[in-house]
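This follows on from our talk about sequence and fold. Please put the record directly below this note.
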Amino acid sequence: MTAAAFLAFALLSLFAAVSPGPAVLMSARTGLTEGFRTGAALAVGIGAGAVVWASAAMFGLNLLFAAAPALLWALKIGGGAYLGWIGVKLWRSAATPFETADTRPTPRSAASAFRLGVATQLANPKPAVMFSAIFLGTVPPATAPWVYAALLAVVFTNETVWNILVARIFSLEKTRLGYISLKTILDRCFGGLLALLGLRIALS
C-alpha cells in the first residue's frame, strides 16, 4: 500500500468520524451533562465500535449484506429502534431541572460510558457500508496484515480523538451554563435529533 493511499484512507476515515451522526450527538450531550471524563470514556467506546465496523468491512461484510439483504434490514431496524428509544427518553426527561454541581448525581462510570459509546456506534450499521467503500477504494487486495492493523488504529484514533474534542467543547463551564438555562429546549433537540436519526437509519 502506498503512502498516498494510506493518507487517503486516513482522510476519508476522518471525514466519516466528523460527519454528524448519533455518536457525535451522544458525545456532545455526555460532555454537557456528565463532564469531560465521562465524555472521554464514551469517545473511547465510540472508537472501539468504529473498529468493529471497520474490521467487519475489511472482511467483506458488504458482500454478506449483498447476499443477505434481510441481515442489513434487521440491523437497521434494531439500531434505529435503539437510538429512537434513547431519543424518546431524553425528550420525556427534558423538563426535569438540571441539578447543581453540589447535588448532581455522580456521572456514570467509565466502563458504563464506554459500553454506551460502543452500543451507540454499533446501533448505526451505516459505518460498515462507508468503511467498505473506503477499503475498496484505497486498500489493495494484497495489503500486508500489519498495514491492516495500522489502518484500524487510524480508524480508532480518528473516531476517539474527534469525539473527545466534541465532549471537551461541550463540557466547558460556559457551554454548561448555557445548557442549564436552555435545558428543556436543548434536551428536546437532542432527543428529537436522535429519534429522527434512528428513524432515518431504520427506513434508509
